[in-house]
Amino acid sequence: MIEIPRELLPEDGRFGSGPSRVRPEAAQRLAKAADLYLGTSHRRTDVKSVVGRIRADLRHLFSLPEGWEVVLGNGGTTAFWDAAAACLVERRSEHLAFGEFSSRFAGVVADAPHLETPEVIEAEPGSRPDAKAMPGIDSYCLTHNETSTGVSAPVAKPAGADENSLVLVDATSAAGAIDIDLADAGVDAYYFAPQKVFAADGGLWIALMSPAALERSQRLVSTKDNGRWIPASLDLVQAAENSAKDQTLNTPALATLFLMCDQLEWMVENGGLAWSVARSAESSSHLYQWAEASEFASPFVTNPDHRSPVTVTIDLDESVSADDLCAALRANGIVDLEGYRKLGRNQIRIATFPATPPEDIVCLTACVDFVADALRG
After folding, report:
1. Which of 51, 73, 174, 333 could form a disulfide with 239 if both were Cys (CB 3.0 to 4.6 A apart)?
2. What pLDDT, in 10s, does the model give residues 86-118?
3. CATH code, 102
4. Bond into 354 cis (ω within 30)
């Protein structure tokens, strides 16, 4: 076994891209609150106050304009894709596909019997495509950060798009750590989940919805024309109505709500979105600089403008097996650096969400160097 010197080790060895590192102090506060908070009705005031704080802090964090709503529902981003196919895409959508997760929403829409075949613009993993205005497109479906490949993409309605079209942005691993002005970008639904930047467990989706998105969902739900079937669990109107009461339609995971609330308050208290963005950028910049200077590692995303500040993918040369490297690191308490399995590359992937201190990232690279030197003999 390769034993890393104790003085090189990070304080916390969790670097996974999701579920991500939960701050220990947040978990400790959950444990202290457990007797009165867990195992109770989600309609109780104690739980509804947590949902209310989440909604208020998200409104503050993203400086939401008047008329926007913070909407919550159960099931994670995957469930929101289903809800969007039911309640936001009217007839035909355009999707940018440049990795595993950015491709999935297009698949959901393609399988929906009430919708037309979507327009899909693809790019090879490690790069990104650009949205194009097209006639007949009522929903432009973008991804702010592709978690599988470590590529981030700009968010904006394409020039020339119909003014009534919506922009739906998957921000699952971007929200809270990549800068955005939702109003200036022309976004209508910015949706994400709590197990990335917000350092909680999964099973919940959150959508920041514009008046235009709320109006379209209201119209589509009320008409249900042309065989459009909208079950209650995917009904965005019911989700918005329940969220306005600081609750969800169905029972949520109370621990997830608590941890997300704690993380949000921590982010807001430390300086909000600007602080979180800078903290993640500091960590990811160190990793990219380290990889560029390394003898055995290099950034997978070759264009610096395309590189994610929250999900760093690093290729390794044949002298260092990613499997052997990750196994040795795991034996020393450093976990979840494995690359995304479907890419099939000799690669590691490192999350640089705000909950991870930049100093732990510096320790990580020292540990990777130590293990790589040992593996190379």
Report:
1. 73
2. 999 999 999 999 999 999 999 999 999 999 999
3. 3.40.640.10
4. no
